[in-house]
Specification:
It contains 21 helices and 29 strands. With 808 residues, it is α/β, with parallel strands linked by helices. The strands form eight sheets. The protein has a seven-stranded mixed beta sheet with strand order 5-4-16-15-14-6-7, sandwiched between helices. A six-stranded mixed beta sheet has the order 20-22-21-24-19-23. α8 runs parallel beside α10. The chain starts with 14 loop residues before the first helix and ends in an 8-residue tail after the last strand.
Length: 808
């Protein structure tokens, strides 16, 4: 019996390839081996002469004499050349992610997930891997500043003493505290004590990346057979990743019963690319789809479109094993519809658990109104950067100038610190003691691995100063707080056990069940049709709201599907671009609610029609040498009443053109099929498969194991965590936007993006391309999602089942 013929689909990477334009480029980008046009022979000789002169000057100088002290007694736990691993945690969006950090001779050198922590399960994402570069970034704040001049910690304590005398007299009236989302129970307790000490003071919260969900929930994708994502970035930067990606990958590897994923979204995402069935629609239609789905699940005979009817039948046939997930950027109506479906089908308590919303602090808008009204005399900004990421309609920067006493606490001298009287350098989480709680309530200790590289203070130490507590040392603050938690056994033994494991027994934080809702009502009134363009605002996949803009690894990490680096763009669908008469690379003016923004156009296959997506996090004006001036600032269009966009966008061509720094066309292999898609069980032999003799390398007779790599593309979500992990492990440099434009980059592992089908509704694929030239065989660049080794005809195959972090 003949083997089934494979279902082959031609893959394409750009719209130009899809249009079958002539492919006259070679293996390397055009101009990559030629002399740059902007570099003349005269200029080259000038630079070389200058380099030689500087080298000679350095060689003729004598370094200042320094006294060094050798080990008198080497630490017992330290063996030179042998690394140590320490458990700690990273807080992102108010949730804890357990980490294991490698330390070589007292210096952190590599970050991975803690296998015992439920939020990571031994995995990591790009932000955890890249946190190492932030630690060693010389652009970090290095000096406490007062009105632009260096100051000391004692100077700040003196100023706080003067302010506290006023707070005691009026009960803290005029004192305001502004923070991002906080997941540290100890820090929350300190804030509660501050508000109790000064009853008239207020705490405000603003986080431009992690909004508070109207119905927070915990997912159990390991139990889900059918998943519907309503613009939910399940594999993004929040609390659902990377453990959610791991559970999903395990279900995709099941030969008996694989889970099925549906996705509804406007902008292509990692979740949508993994979906078996994806629907791209504008934001307003997502609300209507959620309402119709809830009605179809309650009444299967309800008349609706075929796609919704099919999804409703699939969910209904998998009661208690299906789940509907609403995205954090969706309005409350979508969350109510998703919960209604989960309630009706009995999914609550099995595949999803709803929890009670956390007590909310006052909003940023309330703070701005108070500052404009002269009600704020002292403002302490703890960790955020509202001078950059506040919605444009609030006018935060103007209002900040009306506050007499302002103190900013942050890692970098940024847009907010430039407008505050005081700026206090913040300690990196690898330099400071702290604690954090995961989404499931598990507590973790944030344990430092190195002394602060610069004079800095943690948030705990700053709050202790505001409270005039004793002690003010971070270690003593955390130890005292945990002495009250670790009861029932000897504290010292329990404390050391927590430090060793990185986790502690659940405290019940974030585990409070949501109020019982027997019938979640969903409005049946359809949204009014929108004939205008809609604006979609989302955080950058890697820079988020700009907090990682100074991280060069993340700036140069190619974005999903576009492979953009060092900038952002206004994304449109091919059909919408054609209707508006704009081409790829056109510079346009975006007008929204009386505000304008100039941006280049990127025509993206799979994008929803009649809407434009822009990403936050770029356009920084004070982000150091790396992040300043990259791209445009999409916060200029954000409003406080509709932070994630809305209808009424106008687009006008300017006549200008823009060249993008993208890696999408780098290292193309023309006239070959680098990606092959076949149906399950099909076998094929590629016609263009090179013969074993067609190689530039001499034959090698392996005496031991020969190593090869197999990547399960049915499980790889294309998150690029392996790229950053490789960059961190090998200390690879970045090349900058100019060199990316010339086709040069230093990534040893990359994740290519391919499309198949039509430009309006393509199938999106990820193709990891790893480096295999390492002399140390095996290289062991292993994605730690249950990677296994198989012996196949004498060849050991490292099976890479999921690209969610790496363990070297």
């Amino acid at each position: 019996m003949n083997a089934p013929k494979p279902a082959m689909h031609r893959q394409w990477r750009t719209l130009e390839e899809l249009a079958l334009l002539p492919e006259d480029a070679g293996e390397f980008p055009a101009g990559s081996s030629e002399w740059p046009d902007d570099m003349s022979r005269r200029r080259f000789l000038q630079l070389m002469a200058g380099s030689l002169a500087l080298a000679g000057t350095v060689g003729c100088t004598r370094q200042p004499r320094e006294e060094i002290v050798p080990y008198v007694r080497q630490p017992e736990e330290l063996t030179l050349g042998k690394p140590l691993w320490f458990a700690t945690a990273m807080e992102l969006g108010g949730d804890a992610f357990g980490l294991l950090v490698r330390s070589d001779s007292g210096r952190p050198t590599k970050i991975d997930g803690n296998p015992d922590h439920p939020a990571t399960l031994g995995r990591s994402n790009v932000h955890m891997q890249a946190a190492l570069l932030t630690l060693y970034d010389p652009a970090r704040s290095q000096t406490l500043m007062h009105t632009g001049a260096p100051a000391t910690w004692e100077d700040l304590l003196g100023a706080l003493t003067t302010q506290s005398a006023r707070w005691k007299m009026n009960g803290g009236a005029g004192l305001r505290l502004l923070t991002r989302r906080i997941g540290s129970p100890t820090l929350r307790a300190q804030i509660d004590r501050l508000l109790a000490k000064y009853p008239q003071a207020k705490w405000h919260e603003h986080d431009a990346t992690f909004p508070e969900s109207p119905m927070p929930a915990r997912l159990h994708l390991e139990r889900a057979d059918v998943i519907l994502s309503l613009d939910a970035h399940i594999f993004g930067a929040g609390a659902l990743s990377p453990s959610a990606a791991l559970h999903f990958a395990k279900r995709r590897r099941s030969d008996e019963k694989m889970c099925r994923l549906y996705a509804v979204e406007s902008m292509p995402s990692l979740t949508g690319a993994m979906a078996d069935h994806r629907r791209a629609i504008p934001p307003a239609e997502i609300v209507d789809l959620a309402r119709k789905l809830a009605a179809a699940v309650r009444d299967p005979a309800w008349n609706t479109d075929p796609w919704i009817a099919a999804v409703a039948r699939d969910l209904a046939s998998h009661r208690k094993s299906g789940v509907v997930v609403a995205g954090d950027f969706q309005p409350p109506e979508v969350h109510r519809a998703a919960r209604a479906v989960n309630e009706v089908l009995g999914n609550v308590g099995t595949t999803i658990e709803y929890t009670a919303p956390e007590p909310r602090a006052a909003s940023l808008a309330e703070l701005v109104n108070a500052m404009n009204g002269g009600e704020v005399e002292s403002l302490v900004v703890l960790g955020g950067n509202p001078g950059y990421d506040a919605p444009a309609d609030l006018g935060f920067a103007t209002a900040l100038g009306k506050v007499p006493f302002t103190l900013h606490h942050g890692l970098y001298p940024d847009e907010t610190s430039a407008r505050c009287a005081w700026h206090l350098p913040e300690s990196h989480f690898l330099e400071a003691w702290g604690d954090a709680v995961a989404r499931d309530g598990l507590l973790s200790i944030v344990q430092p691995l190195i002394e602060p590289l610069y004079p800095s203070k943690s948030a705990h130490e700053l709050l202790a100063a505001l409270l005039f507590d004793i002690p003010t040392d971070g270690y003593e603050i955390i130890r005292a707080a945990w002495r009250q938690r670790l009861v029932g056994e000897g504290f010292e033994a329990a404390w050391r056990k927590v430090l060793h494991n990185g986790i502690a027994p659940s405290s019940g934080e974030k585990q409070k069940p949501a109020p019982e809702i027997s019938d979640v009502t969903v409005s049946s009134a359809p949204s009014s049709p929108d004939a205008n363009l809609a604006l979609v605002i989302r955080p950058d996949p890697y820079l988020l709201d700009g907090r990682f803009a100074e991280n060069a690894w993340l700036q140069e990490l190619p974005r999903p599907f576009t492979k953009l680096t060092w900038e952002n763009a206004a994304h449109l669908s091919p059909r919408t671009a054609q209707r508006l008469g704009v081409a790829h690379g056109d510079v346009v003016d975006l007008s929204y609610r009386g505000r304008k923004l100039r941006a280049p156009v990127w025509i993206l296959p799979g994008h929803a029609d009649d809407c434009v997506t822009v990403h936050l996090g770029n356009g920084r004006t004070r982000a150091g040498d790396v992040g300043t001036g990259c791209g445009f600032n999409a916060f200029a269009l954000q409003t406080s009443d509709a932070p994630w966009g809305g209808s009424g966008l106008e687009l006008r061509k300017t006549g200008e053109r823009h060249v993008f720094s993208t890696t999408q066309e780098h290292q193309r292999m023309e006239e070959r099929e680098p990606v092959r898609v076949v149906t399950k069980g099909a076998t094929t032999v590629a016609a263009d498969e090179p013969a074993p003799s067609e190689t530039l390398y001499p034959p090698v007779e392996y005496m031991g194991a020969a190593w090869g790599m197999v990547i399960d593309l049915n499980a790889c979500i294309g998150c690029s965590a392996c790229t950053i992990a490789c960059q961190a492990e090998n200390n690879l440099p970045v090349v900058g936007r100019e060199q990316v434009l010339r086709g040069r980059e230093m990534h040893w592992i990359r994740v290519d993006a391919y499309f198949s089908g039509s430009a309006e509704a393509p199938q999106m694929l990820h193709q990891p391309v790893p480096c295999m030239h390492c002399e140390n065989a095996p290289c062991e660049v292993v994605c730690p999602t249950a990677a296994t080794v198989h012996d196949h005809e004498g060849l050991n195959l490292m099976v890479y089942n999921r690209c969610i972090g790496t363990r070297y």
